[in-house]
Amino acid sequence: MTEGSSPWERGETWDEMKRALEKEDRMNYEDKQEAKRDRMRDRATRLDTEAKRRGDSAENMARAMNGQPILVGHHSEKRHRRDIERMDANMRKAVEMSSEAAELRRRADAVGGGGISSDDENAVTKLHGRIEKKEHDRDRMKKINTLYRKRDAAGLLALNSGFTLEHFDTKLADAYSWEKAPFPKWQVSNLTASIRSDKKRLVELEAVEERREEAITVLVSAGIADGVRFEVIEDREDNRLVFDFESKPSRRALDLLKRHAWKWSPTRGTHVRKLSYAARTTAEWVTEQLVLKRIEEA
After folding, report:
1. Can you say how many angstroms the Cα of residue 23 is from the centroid of all Cα atoms in its chain?
2. Structural domain tally of the chain?
3. Which of 5, 30, 172, 272 is deepest in the core (most CB within 10 A)?
4. Strand segments (E) across 57-170
5. Which of 81, 110, 139 is the last residue of a domain?
């Protein structure tokens, strides 16, 4: 299934989609990341295959023409021009597909490398580890600055930092006049600010974990949009806010959900958005719009 594309947009019926979903098991975060990488790489492979086919077709057409100029007024003129247009279109498409395949592979390699996601079941543990590492690095910077200021060569050696007084003397000789320490004040301050930001996010993630333990799913609201009943559900285990329709929604409902960042999830068979305060607020407004339109039309 294509991520973000709903089954009715691909011509599937609701029953077909439900049967397909029954075969799929709920995956954990790491499995989802790996599945996403595999989808991107598979698509890149298909694009490369099609790009090669189109490139070979253009090359064969060029070889068949063998440099023959267009014979203006001859019965072959129209066919010759059409062949040139097809050859050009195939070559352009081959280049576009090759570029798209390369971009997909780049994105696949980057999946999971953008930081700690709140969807990760181990997010709290990983964030604790990152905070500890940053605090260790910051304290080490401060210690080295203190030892350098005191000209304590033995202390630097005992710290096993790999640096000596002579190394820092050489480094600071080429630095700006106001830089008096191996690690500038701004570098230590930026790392401290990053630690504060991580600790703030840690509180938020711990709150998410507590909500997950309280209840797996919570029904937020429900209504009827253009004759189709729907429910708005907080899936705290999966950290998602869900719009679940009993059957195929109207085009108006689909457009409204898309405009407000709800995406079709093939593995769930519903429209989802990451659970947050903004998502809850927007869901209230979207629900009002879906139900209000129905009342106005009645």
Report:
1. 25
2. 3
3. 272
4. none
5. 110
